[in-house]
């Protein structure tokens, strides 16, 4: 039995689709089962609720061999520790009680670097990984750079102003990955019952690009000029707070971007195993272009 959290989310939905192509029994934890695709609802067992709820995860993890773990967004959280570590505590207790053998979780790059202790959301992810590993389950942390899909949050500014904005040097080259490539790696690990122990699995996409590189590619894909603009940390934080994010979570985002600017995402050497196939150009052509107003 494989349990999938966030089965209607950006990554979880794709993991579920990949798993449905196999015969493994699947259980999902969903706040709103109606958001599941009809073919999924026919095939999976659904536990309704939040995977931050003790009763829900205790029920969901019963007789489970493997769990796919993602922390859902909580922009209003009182702290990054509350959003990641505290949210995971009931699940870790249930993993231990129910004897779950393996967990595959989405985390961040940069463990062991000089920035790991003050990288905001990434630092909280590392603490969450340690907590999950303490459950006794074997654990694979999918250590991620920024998702290409993050640019979908700026579709309106790209559409109306031909620009997107982040608090980082536009020439800093960084890895980035597409969600469906992450899902393929996760599904492969969930279907493999042979691995043990605790380890990180970096997922770096096919190449390192700067945001100026991405702007050039977007200009070519969209057939109109697109530029990247670096904004200040304070301006970025103010934007996040203006969208309803708590001060603590906004600062956690800022701290993560400062760490990215200092190279936290560049600390892992790219290998054939850590590279994934979808290029930013392919993703922009297949996903972002359809979302940008003509």
Provide a short characterization of the protein structure.
By secondary structure, the protein is α/β, with parallel strands linked by helices. It is 42% helix and 17% strand.
Architecture overview:
This protein has a domain at 2-148 and 177-202: 3-Layer(aba) Sandwich (Rossmann fold), CATH 3.40.50.720. It has helices spanning 12-20, 38-43, 54-60, 80-98, 121-133, 155-161, 179-191, 211-222, 233-242, 247-261, 280-291, and strands at residues 2-4, 26-30, 45-48, 66-69, 102-108, 138-144, 146-147, 163-166, 174-177, 198-202, 208-209, 227-230. With 294 residues, the protein is an alpha/beta fold. It has a seven-stranded parallel beta sheet, with helices on both faces. Strand 4, helix 4 (80-98) and strand 5 (102-108) form a beta-alpha-beta unit. The N and C termini lie far apart (45 Å). Helices cover 42% and strands 17% of the residues. It contains eleven helices and twelve strands.
Q: Key features?
A:
42% helix; seven-stranded parallel sheet; Rossmann fold; 294 residues; 17% strand; alpha/beta; three-stranded mixed sheet; single chain
Spans where pLDDT lies below 50 across 5 or more residues = none
Please write the CATH class name of the domain at 2-148 and 177-202: Alpha Beta
Please provide the ordered H/E string of secondary-structure elements: EHEHEHEHEHEEHEEHEEHEHHH
The H-level CATH homologous superfamily of the domain at 2-148 and 177-202, spelled out, is NAD(P)-binding Rossmann-like Domain
Largest sheet: 7 strands, parallel
């Amino acid at each position: 039995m494989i349990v999938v959290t966030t089965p209607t989310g950006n990554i979880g939905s794709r993991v579920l689709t990949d798993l449905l192509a196999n015969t493994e029994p699947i259980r999902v934890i969903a706040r709103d089962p109606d958001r599941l695709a009809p073919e999924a609802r026919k095939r999976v067992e659904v536990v309704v609720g939040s995977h931050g709820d003790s009763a829900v995860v205790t029920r969901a993890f019963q007789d489970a061999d493997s769990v796919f773990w993602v922390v859902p967004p909580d922009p209003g959280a009182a702290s990054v520790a509350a959003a990641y570590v505290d949210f995971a505590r009931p699940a870790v207790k249930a993993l231990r009680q129910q004897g779950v053998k393996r967990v595959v979780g989405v985390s961040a790059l940069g463990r062991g670097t000089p920035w790991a202790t003050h990288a905001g959301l990434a630092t909280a992810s590392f603490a969450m990984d340690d907590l999950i590993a303490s459950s006794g389950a074997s654990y694979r942390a999918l250590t991620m750079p920024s998702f290409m899909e993050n640019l979908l949050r700026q579709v309106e500014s790209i559409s109306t102003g031909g620009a997107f904005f982040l608090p980082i040097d536009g020439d800093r080259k960084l890895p980035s990955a597409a969600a469906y490539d992450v899902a393929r790696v996760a599904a492969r690990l969930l279907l493999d019952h042979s691995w043990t122990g605790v380890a990180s699995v970096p997922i770096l996409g096919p190449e390192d690009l700067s945001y100026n590189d991405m702007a050039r590619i977007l200009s070519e894909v969209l057939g109109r000029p697109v530029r990247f603009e670096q904004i200040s940390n304070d301006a970025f934080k103010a934007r996040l707070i203006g969208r309803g994010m708590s001060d603590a979570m906004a600062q956690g985002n800022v701290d993560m971007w400062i760490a990215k600017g200092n190279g936290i995402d560049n600390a892992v050497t790219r290998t054939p195993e850590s590279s994934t196939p979808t290029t930013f150009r392919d993703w922009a052509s297949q996903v972002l272009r359809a979302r940008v107003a003509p």
